[in-house]
Amino acid sequence: MPEVLQQEFFGFTLFQIIVALVIIIVSISIIQKIVKALSSEKQVSFGIKVKCLNCGWVGSVGKYDRRCRKCISDSLEEIR
Ligand SMILES: [Zn+2]
């Protein structure tokens, strides 16, 4: 092992610090991928903003579940 990697900083060798940094960077990128996957899934299931023509409820519904969350009516108007 090169001598520079065995040099100590704050009680850790440079080699240990590099390994820790690599682990942190890898776990951050994994977490970001998971968060991205979860948020894109959420957009698919709650994608359309609508207003209920029956009771006036306004909210988001899924693309394949176009029903009012309040009165279960399917007479919804898409709003932007
Ligand atoms: Zn309604």
Keywords for this structure?
two-stranded antiparallel ribbon; 1 helix; 80 residues; 2 domains; binds zinc ion; single chain; three-stranded antiparallel β-sheet; rod-shaped; alpha+beta
Brief summary of the model shown:
With 80 residues, the protein is α+β, with helices and mostly antiparallel strands. The protein contains one helix and five strands; from the N terminus they run ββαβββ.
Your description of this structure?
The chain is of the alpha+beta class and 80 residues long. It has one helix at residues 14-45, and strands spanning 8-9, 12-13, 48-52, 58-61, 76-78. It folds into 2 domains: 11-45; 46-80, no CATH class. The chain has a 3-stranded antiparallel sheet, with no helix packed on it. Strands 1-2 form a two-stranded antiparallel sheet. Strand 1 (8-9) and strand 2 form a beta hairpin. The protein is rod-shaped, with a radius of gyration of 25 Å. The structure holds zinc ion (ZN). Zinc ion is lined by residues 52, 54-55, 57, 68, 70-71, 73.
